[in-house]
Amino acid sequence: MSTDPRPPRLARWLLRLQPLGDRRPEIEADLLELFHSRAAERGRRHAARRYYADIASLWRRPRAAVNATARRGTAGRRLAWFFADLRIDLLYATRLIRRQPAFAAVAIVSLAFGVGANTLVFSVINALVLRPLPVDRPEELAFIQPRAGSTMSFPAYRDIRDRNDTFAGVVAYRIAPMSLDRDTAAARVWGYLVSGNYFDVLGVRPAAGRFFHQAEDQPPAPSPLAVLSYECWQSRFAGDRAIVGATVHINGGTYQVIGVAPRGFIGTELFYRPEVWVPMTMQPQIEARKSYLDERMTRNTMALGRVKANVSSGAAEANLAAIAVALAREYPKSDEGTSLGLSQPGLVGDVLRTPIKAFTLGVLTLAGLTLLMACVNLAVVLTSSGADRRRELAIRLSIGASGGRLRRQVLTETLMLGVGGGFAGLALAFGAARALSAWQLPVAVPIQFDVAPDVRVFAFALAISIGAGVVFGLAPARQAARTDPNAALKGFDVRSGRPRRVAFRDVLVAVQVALCVLLLAACLLALRGLQEALTKPIGLQPRGVTIAGFDVGLAGYDEARGRDFEQRALEAVRQLPGVEAAAYSDTLPLNIDQSSSHVVPDDRPNLALPEMIGVSYYRVSPDFFRTLGIRLLQGREVGPLDALHAPAVAVVNEAFARQVFRTTNALGRRFRYGWSGTWTEVVGLVEDGKYLTLNEPPRPAVFEAIVQHYSSTVVLSVRSSLPPDDVVRALRATVARLDPRLPLYEVQSLESMLGFVLVPSRVASVALGAFGVLAFLLALTGLYGVVTTAVARRAREIGIRVAIGARPSQVIRLVVWRTIALLAIGAAAGGLLVLGAGRVLESIVYDASPRDPWVLAGVGLMLIVVGTFSCWAPVRRALGVNPTDALRSQ
Amino acid sequence: MKGDRLGEFEEFTLLAVCALRPPIYGVPVQRFVEDATARRVSMGAVYAALGRLEDKGFVRSSMGEPTAERGGKPKRLFQVTPLGLRTAKELRRVREKIWSAIEEGRS
After folding, report:
1. Structure pTM?
2. Residue pLDDT, tens place only, A688-721
3. CB–CB contact A30 B43 (8 Å)
4. Region B8-106: CATH code
5. Is residue A103 part of a domain?
6. So what's the ipTM on this one?
7. Beta partners for B78?
8. Is A807 on the interface with B (CB under 8 A)?
């Protein structure tokens, strides 16, 4: 017997769903025996078919089960009856769907979009906000966050690690670019500098080799060890196991690869995909700068702690606070006023999590409203569906079905549509999420979010599908239970009791119009914001400019060789054909890499720290403004005479002049960074631009001579009349001729780099635009359905009126008046919603106000279009009513 | 409701229980009826008919011993009651009476 085939798995699963009660063992054994004998006689397929049929026959005759289970008490009986009724309800529901395929299709499609949009937004939230880090027991991890910002000094980290008694371990990490090669051309990769205990505290196991430990990260002994990410191992070294123990070059130094991190391990920030981990003691070599591991003034280390199992986070925070107090006492100069808190890890503490959460929850709210609107829409269609439906319900009522029973049946139908729409929506969301996960931002840093849906996303989609089914079924179900069989069977459309002035359906339509106004306003606002962002002057002329970044530190250059190389690269690029101007700088406005500091003007040298003015600073070569098309308003550019030991000079923008010097004539004035440092003289004034984001208010910026402030990382900018692709190729070739081992990055047109700045508003516009279009269509179909059925119902009345001499204009008024009233009420409510939601919208959209005339005009136009379209066909039908036909049909 | 009377399918099922040799349980009954009537018979129908026959007191059932052959699962064993046997015979008597009337009329 044991070698016999088994029934199909699906069939066995279906059998398990049957409410067989205590007869299950014998029935299962009977069916199995039959299956085996049939399989032996007529083959497995025949046996399987009969097996399915037998299982179905058990459903079809639930009393067989009821009789058996009934002996066990009423609970079992009720359950069996429940299933029996459910079967009938499902049967009815499928019949309804077959009879009204158009309605079913509309319902499933609109729910699919609603559920799909919600699921997609939720899977983004899931990936960004809810998902834990890919480590052992992630719930114990907490980001140790200084009140001001996200980073602390490395000595402060060391003190926290050694002095606390509430953490099982505290790790430090820092994002660092590196150049990686193994006897080939160097590639610029991104990695982490991490404390030696990093992998041990996180509790991950290597995919190959081993990880380093605390003992291997003890200064001053250098420990040139490297751990590769799984993806790096696969893509750069073809998954070769021999890489473990081999040596590679990182930033010109020799490192031994000791292991490979497990697949999917992306370290301690959710958006960042590092390729290499290197012990913290290697910092001076990796970053090609002075060690700051004993420097308390340099705060650039992120720290993460694993809270001990029996310690509350409150106790851990108290512990941190005590350490902060002790540090402030011991090192008043550097650590005065330090305060430490805990936040959820994965998004640089709360620095990124808070805005991302606000944005995504705002979008989720809009997505939820769209789904709600789709539900209202379907409810409207269902409550106003044709006379045959009412007749069916009436017949069932009159032969003894209870109101509750009918309610349940209608809910079963809507739930079925809801779940159907949910599945379709889930499929849509899956496709979109896959595209989103594969999408890489156009920046050099490997920023990527894995939004692949998981169990939580499934559960969410299922929950909202069922919720949608219930929501759009409630009103029709209520109505079904109230059907007056007498009137309905006679063919009258009369509700029980007196006819009400305001039908429930009308309320639904008004709600729908209100939601549509809200969504459409949000959509228009987003588009306005995007338009603003695209057309707003950003203080430079990107067209024709190509950029290329490199970091001579990565090639192991010291400062003297680095200066020389940067200069030679600029000279070589200037000789290229078609080049009109070229310059280099430490970074560019609106690039992802921005620096800012606090300055003090010469007339108020003793400002306290809170009163100092925050400015963005850039270090630039001569010709910088001409290359980027930044207009010089007064004075001169930074020139070749502003050499290393010449007096420090700078060009500032208008906002700097206004805010720091409180004048428009800043030439000749001086400023310095903080209380110390040298005074820098202002020699030129340029127009304001955008520096960090497109929607920032005017921000002070200062441009200093790069030769007076060396930077190993530079961006070459080239203004050329040739196509960007040619310039890119020429740039690569030129730099490769100077040093073939130096990796270039972010080689692209300036316009494509600026594309990144527009990503948030593009995303918002696409999302809100989609919701707006959806809302518009839903409102259109919803209102159309209502007006059409209203006209159909009143055909007889209209016929009488026409017969006794009503003019067409009077007929039109009859049909249109109610629609206009509904639109007006809905629009008024929607207007209030828009004003109420203005704050949420402002957080999503660039400085656009809900009172924007374009937005108001757009919404008004939408209302007119919706009203006209939904009335057009019904009015024509009403005018075409032939009085004799209308009267005879009743 | 058919009360204590029998529908066609119930009759076949009752006769199957009369005709079969022990052990009489769902599977042999289904095969017997399917063979005899040459039409597809589902297990659900067989269980339902047996259940009704039992409710009417025409058959009674008891649980058999679990056997290793069925994976340790038991069989529900049926046997016809005296009332069931009497009813079956009564049905046959009625039918034969009618048939003899038909044949007499023909000749």
Report:
1. 0.60
2. 988 877 767 788 999 999 888 888 888 999 999 8
3. yes
4. 1.10.10.10
5. no
6. 0.88
7. B61
8. no
Asked if residue A448 belongs to a domain, the reply is: no
Which range (A167-181, A718-732, A837-851) has the least confidence?
A837-851
Q: What is the mean pLDDT of chain A?
A: 78
Say if CB A224 and CB A254 are below 8 A apart.
yes
Is A40 near chain B, with CB under 8 Å? Answer: no
State how far the Cα of B32 lies from the Cα of B41, in Å rounded to an integer: 10
The percentage of chain A sitting over the pLDDT mark of 90, rounded to a whole number, equals 6
| Pick from A506, A508, A469, A507: nearest CA to A371 | A469
Cβ partners under 8 Å of residue B66, min gap 6: B72, B73, B74
Determine, yes or no, domain membership for A447: no
Helices (H), A288-345: 313-330, 332-335
Query: Does one domain contain both A324 and A425?
Result: no
Of B27, B48, B55, the CB nearest to A30: B27
What sign results for the dihedral spanned by CA atoms A25, A29, A30, A32? positive
- Give residues 45 to 64 of A whose Cβ lies within 8 Å of B: 53-54, 56-61, 63-64
Using DSSP, state whether A414 is helix, strand or coil.
helix
Please check whether residues A743 and A776 belong to one and the same domain: no
- Contact yes or no for B48 and A63 at CB 8 A: yes
How far does B47 lie from chain A, in Å, by closest CA?
Answer: 6
Q: Which of A92, A112, A127 is the last residue in one of the domains?
A: A92
The answer to whether residue A4 neighbours chain B at the CB level (below 8 Å) is no
Residues 6+ apart with CB under 8 A from A765: A526, A527, A529, A530
For residue B51, which residues of chain A lie inside 8 Å, CB to CB? Answer: 63-64, 67-68
Flag whether residue A71 sits within 8 Å of chain B, measured between CB atoms: no
Give the pLDDT of residue A70: 45
B71: nearest CB among A29, A34, A63: A29
Q: Is residue A109 part of a domain?
A: no
- Which residues in A lie closer than 8 A to residue B59 (C-beta atoms)? none
Domain ranges for chain B: 8-106
A609 and A633 share a domain? yes
With CA atoms as reference, the chain A residue closest to B47 would be A64
For residue A685, list its beta bridge partners: A634, A652
